[in-house]
Design brief:
Elements (H helix, E strand, L loop, with lengths): L3 E5 L5 H10 L3 E5 L3 H8 L10 H10 L3 E4 L7 E4 L14 H10 L8 E4 L7 H10 L11 E4 L9 H7 L2 E5 L2 H11 L7 E5 H32 L3 H8 L22 H8 L5 H11 L1 H15 L6 E5 L14 H11 L3 E5 L11 E2 L2 H5 L4 E4 L4 H4 L3 H4 L7 E4 L6 H6 L3 E4 L6
Parallel strand pairs: 1-2, 1-4, 2-3, 4-5, 5-6, 7-8, 9-10, 9-12, 10-11, 12-13, 13-14
Antiparallel strand pairs: 6-7
Helix pairs in contact: 1-3, 4-5, 8-10, 8-11, 10-11, 12-13
Length: 424
Amino acid sequence: MKKTICVVGLGYIGLPTAVMFSNHGHIVHGVDVNAKAVEKLQNKQLHIEEEGLQERLNKAIDSGNLTVSTTAQKADVFIIAVPSPIKPDKTADLEYVRTATASIVPFVEAGNLVILESTVPPKTVEHVMLPELVKSGLAIGDELFVSHSPERVIPGRVFEELVSNDRIIGGINPKSATMTTELYSSFVKGKMHETDATTAELVKVMENTYRDVNIAFANELAKIAGNIGVNIWEAIKLANYHPRVNIHTPGPGVGGHCIAVDPWFLVELDQQNAQIIHLARSTNDGMPAYTAQLAKDVLKAKGIEQPKIAVLGLAFKGNIDDMRESPSMEVIEQLHERNIDYIAFDPHIKENNLEKQTQQLEVALDKADAILILTDHQVFKDLDPTVLKDQMNHSIIIDTKNCINRRTWEKAGYEVFVLGDSKN
């Protein structure tokens, strides 16, 4: 059945969700406080990068099924997809969720459904959303229905995973869950797993915390392997041939809106019992400093006392433009603290506040003493080392993502250093 839907938050999750519902026959109104982003969307221009989004946005707007503005309006369903970051003290900042919920209160009516998609600490629906929604005067669970259905997609494959992934549906009561399942069934082919809202909140945070702990394990292994003369990438590959082993890969840190944030929700919730989680988060948060020191040590060993580094990659993941919680920014800060000059280049990043950056690879490489790869963009994997060599002062490359073909670069005369590599 066709519904009118109001989606609050038009970022990396909210916009694709709004477009999907629009493309499947629902009438959707998207809302965002970023007036510049709204204006761009009204002109069918994107403010984020995602495979297949432009075509789907064009279709949604041209069909008349999608409108966008900075204010909410009446609808059958309200979907909240706003950020839930952490504060400097590592506690959850739920003000975006609270404010977004408050913004729809003047528009909700009896029979409406409110869905929170944002990843949040357990009890957020109960302690943050419901106190705002009761101000509508509607009976929660009888007249106004509420659920939490957290997104489960990865940037770069959002539309594929919106359709194919199973969905967790956490209602404040069974009817809320059922209504949510019926709504998402308009395009989701994966299974719907209904539960209560708090369980759904915990499940999503657990999923991302599992990955964070696994990455921390890989990062510890990388440090050990480098000390004992083993290539960790080869070791992990071989270990993962075991049918019950799935070790993740190491790197310069963990980024993104979920994995780098969600574990702190559990630490805040119950620090006494979240000791492994806390240690893993601290381990991964320490990798940018480890990476910067690795670069300094490599260059110092080559007698380069005042180096310039071409930093390749600012996004937290390959082939996307998402810089949320990207470890690259902390690596750059750590380079600065070690008095290492740098210039950054990322072909996917069009706007940011970084002082030393360029939109041209040639500028980044000019007179550089080393290349430091922090993001495994395909364009970096495809670089031709024979073309780059003459632009640099020294032929050194430090690959924290194990994304280049080592033999090819060494054949071209480069010294190659890889995070977690016995050569380090």
